[in-house]
Specification:
Elements: H1 2-22, H2 26-30, E1 37-41, E2 45-53, E3 57-62, E4 74-79, E5 85-87, H3 89-96, E6 104-116, E7 122-132, E8 135-146, E9 149-158, E10 160-165, E11 176-190, E12 195-207, E13 217-227, E14 235-247
Antiparallel strand pairs: 1-2, 1-5, 2-3, 3-4, 6-7, 6-14, 7-8, 8-9, 9-11, 10-11, 11-12, 12-13, 13-14
Length: 253
C-alpha cells in the first residue's frame, strides 16, 4: 500500500499536466470570432487578437497598445501541440487582471538596520514584521540600541499600496518593486528616550507575480518616528531585510 501511495505521489504532476491538456477543446478554439482578444498559454503567455485556427495551428495578431509610439502589427503562429490553454472573455480578464495593485495577504519578515537620533548619534535595531492576515495591518517587534541603551518597541502600522515599478503589463510575469506607505503608532520601552510615538514609513519590496518566488523577497524601509512628548526630537531609520510576501492573486488556496 505504501508503494502505491509513493507511486501516485510521483505521478501526480504528470497526471495533473495530462488533465490540464485535456481541458483544451480545440473545436471551441476554432469557433472563436476573428478579432477577439485571447491569451495563448504555451511555455509563456501571449496576449493577442484571434485570426483563425486550422486543425493544427492557431493564428493571431499582436497590435501595439502605445498610442505615443505605435508599432506595426505582428502576426504569430502557434502549433496546436504547443498550446496548453486559450483564454477569452471572463477567463481572460481573470488571467490578465493586475492583482498586485491590492493589499498583501500575508507578511512575515525579518530585518535590521540603523539610523540617527535627533542629536545625530547612531542607532541600531533588529526585529520582525507580521501582518496582512486580518487586513492591511502589520505589527513590528524590535530590539534596539539608542544612546548606548537597550530598548524594545512594539508598533502597529497600516500597509497601504502606492505604486509598482515597472507598471503592470498583461500576460507578462516579471519582477517588480512595490511601494507601500505605512503610517503607524508605537511604544518604546526600556532605557533611553521615546515612550509613545507616531511613525511615518515608506517600504519598497521586490516581488514577482508568482507567489513561490516571493519566499525571500528583499525589502527596504525608511522610517521617521515622532515622540508624543517631543515630536521634533524624533529619529530617522533604515531597515533592510527579507520577507515572505503573499499577494491577493497568488495566495495559498
Amino acid at each position: 500500500m505504501k508503494i502505491q501511495h509513493i507511486a501516485l505521489f510521483l505521478l501526480a504532476p504528470l497526471l495533473a499536466e495530462a488533465a490540464s491538456a485535456q481541458t483544451l477543446n480545440w473545436k471551441t478554439v476554432q469557433a472563436i470570432s476573428p478579432g477577439t482578444q485571447i491569451l495563448v498559454v504555451t511555455k509563456r503567455q501571449t496576449l493577442c487578437s484571434f485570426q483563425t485556427a486550422t486543425n493544427e495551428q492557431l493564428f493571431c495578431r499582436v497590435r501595439s497598445t502605445d498610442p505615443r509610439h505605435p508599432k506595426p502589427d505582428v502576426d504569430l503562429t502557434f502549433n496546436r501541440s504547443d498550446i496548453q490553454q486559450v483564454y477569452t472573455d471572463d477567463a481572460l480578464k481573470a488571467e490578465t487582471y493586475d492583482y498586485s495593485k491590492g493589499f498583501l495577504s500575508l507578511i512575515l519578515a525579518a530585518g535590521g538596520g540603523g539610523g540617527l537620533d535627533n542629536a545625530h548619534r547612531p542607532t541600531s535595531f533588529a526585529g520582525i514584521k507580521i501582518g496582512g492576515m486580518g487586513g492591511p495591518i502589520s505589527l513590528d517587534l524590535q530590539y534596539d540600541r539608542m544612546q548606548a541603551k537597550n530598548g524594545f518597541s512594539t508598533e502597529g502600522s497600516a500597509v497601504l499600496p502606492l505604486f509598482r515599478i515597472p507598471s503592470f503589463k498583461p500576460a507578462k510575469e516579471r519582477k517588480f518593486v512595490k511601494v507601500f506607505a505605512e503610517p503607524g503608532l508605537g511604544y518604546r520601552a526600556g532605557d533611553g528616550p521615546f515612550g509613545g510615538y507616531s511613525s511615518a514609513k515608506v517600504m519598497a519590496v521586490l516581488l514577482t507575480d508568482t507567489w513561490s518566488d516571493n519566499w525571500t523577497a528583499p525589502y527596504v524601509e525608511f522610517q521617521r518616528r515622532f515622540p508624543f512628548e517631543s515630536p521634533l526630537e524624533g529619529d530617522n531609520r533604515f531597515t533592510f531585510g527579507l520577507m515572505l510576501a503573499v499577494c491577493e492573486h497568488c495566495g495559498l488556496d
